[in-house]
Amino acid sequence: MPARLHQPDLGVPADLAARIAESARTTTSPVSPDIDDWLAGKRQRPFESVLVTLDELTDPQGWRFAAGTGNLEHYSGRFFTVEGMHVTTNHGHLGQWWQPILVQRDVAILGIIAKEFDGVLHFLLQAKMEPGNADMVQLSPTVQATSSNYTRVHQGRPARYVEYFTDPGRGRILVDILQSEQGAWFHLKRNRNIVVEVTDGVPLHEDFCWLTLGQIHRLLRRRNVINMDARTALGCLPVPATLGALTAGEPDAAPESGGRHTMTELLSWFTGRKSEYEMSARLVPLNSLVGWRRDAERIRPESAGNFSIVGVRVHARTREVTSWKQPLLAPHGLALAALVVRRIGGRLHALVRAEVLPGYRDTVELGPTVRFMMADYADTPAHRRPEFLDYVLSAGDRVRYDVVQSEEGGRFLHAETRYLVVEAGDDVPLRVPPDFAWVTVGQLLALQRHSYYLGIELRTLLFCLNSL
Predict the structure, then answer these.
(1) Helix, strand or coil for residue 188?
(2) 130 closest CA partner among 117, 140, 142
(3) Beta strands 190-197 and 108-117: pairing type?
(4) Contact by Cβ (8 Å): 283, 70
(5) Which terminus of the chain, N or C, has fewer Cβ atoms within 10 Å?
(6) pLDDT at residue 185 is higher than 60
């Protein structure tokens, strides 16, 4: 762990915390459109994203299977590749496996412009079409683009508003953090989550809208409206730990205050988990994977598996390039990400898990209490199911948040996760297995201000928790 991260501190300027809280309380705005009608209009455009064979992806100016390795790559050498991975580990019951993995060496910008209107912070979101999106169009950050995109390797139109994040001095930085993405599907992927507040006028394009944090929180209660990249960028805002209803009435204390564990104890536990587990995640040729086969339609597991690699053909006149083909990772069914919370000593704690995944830069990040592909449930013996899985599935009236949300539509095809927040009582013990820890919301918010502590599912759940 880098020395500078030994003692994360919340350190939120009081004026900023108050302004974010005010934006979260504001649920109407004269500068915002009627979001239902506005978004419905964007979704009625003639977009197309259809499955094609893998052979149809290959094109001298498009994608190809590399000679020798069989890796699926773009002719430019940019964007991303589909490669193979061989994993060996001392964690869990499966000591080794082979799988395809998405390799994206570009650092993407997930950037949001913030601006005050009538004294209230608003955030500029885009109605963005992505080929893998459920419902095709969702609300995304102002800029959601890899360096291959915004340097125009595709020879398309420039990305709108990208200069606010690439040119220094355009505004006040509220957030600027490198964070990971799905460690099961990406190899060492990282994005720059950045929010910039401006005071000058911002020309408003028809596919963009200003929304308060309160309006965004309301949209989080609906399926597939706020996309994954907007959730992670906004979730990194330095919000007060008392913003959500579940934490209402608690003192807005420093991360060390009132927790079951001090921050030093939590960091020691986290470092211990990282030291305990060994994992080798070695890139190998895609055509050498054991247990996988390529046919005309997809690259798929020979037996039960969680995902396949498919190809799509896309038409979208609102994008910088209006027509293209690309591979996507297609999950086999719905995922579950559940966070158990309970009050300990009067403060709300979340039960988090040290999650070991092959795509993480340092093996372990903090995940939710449970993360599981539900298609595997019937075939997974009870003794191999994740701890607390059956508890959250039977939570009943203890559920405080239960909404299906899409994951990243630029790389995944219809990847959806059921996000659950379950408020528990004394039926969930304080003494938990070694991979788990009770952490206050304030401590999680403090850790989130640094890179590679919280995985993307936990960051989404924390954002949803603070929206309740």
Answers:
(1) coil
(2) 140
(3) parallel
(4) no
(5) N
(6) yes
Pairing of strands 370-373, 335-344: antiparallel
Query: Minimal CA–CA distance to 356: which of 94, 132, 135, 166?
Result: 94
Q: Could you write out the DSSP letters of every residue in 285-344?
A: -GGG-TTEEE-SS-EEESSS-SEEEEEEEEE-TTSSSSEEEEEEEEESS-EEEEEEEEEE
3-state secondary structure of 273: helix
Question: What is residue 81's three-state secondary structure?
Answer: strand
Written as one letter, the residue type at 12 is V
pLDDT on residue 146: 82
Q: CATH topology for 263-280+333-467?
A: Nucleoside Triphosphate Pyrophosphohydrolase (3.90.79)
The encoded tokens of residue 429 equal 């013990």
Report the DSSP beta bridge partners of residue 193: 110, 177
Mean pLDDT of 456-467: 96
For 113-144, what is each residue's pLDDT tens digit?
A: 999 999 999 999 999 999 999 999 999 999 99
SS3 149: helix
pLDDT at 447 over 80: yes
| Model pTM score | 0.93
Domain ranges of the chain: 263-280+333-467
Among 227, 181, 104, 148, which Cα is nearest to 367's?
A: 181
CA distance linking residue 364 with residue 356, whole number of Å = 5
389, 369 Cβ separation under 8 angstroms: no
The whole-number pLDDT of residue 1 equals: 36
Q: Are 349 and 250 in contact (CB under 8 A)?
A: no
Q: Residues 229-235: what's their mean pLDDT?
A: 97
Chain CA centroid to CA 93, Å: 27
Decide if pLDDT at 360 tops 50. yes
